[in-house]
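Appendix B, example 12.
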Amino acid sequence: MIFTNYTWAGPSTGPLIREGGNIRMPEVSNLFVVLMGVGTVFFGLICIILLCMAMSAVCRSMEKAPVAAPAAPAAPAAPAAGVEAIPNRQAMIAAIAAAIAEEEGTDLAGIRILSVKKL
């Protein structure tokens, strides 16, 4: 929709240019438009960086607060010589071997598990 009969220009005409009976906006250079766009993008990026730094500081300060909690007593060390009883040990080893074979893309017969340690 084109307004050809524009009569109100507000309290002051500001940057509007009057030519005869017509009112038009002044031409803006291409360089100005490019610089405004690039400036807006970099301003936004700087704001994002500052927000990330602020959130990082907040997270670090929240992480340090619960350090004062008492430490849990250390669990007794498992005997090195004895092997703990793991129920269905052979089924667990078979499942581990099948998972490794699937991940590597090899045959299950090519997988040999020498030892299993509980962490």
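The chain is about 45% helix and 5% strand. The radius of gyration is 36 Å.
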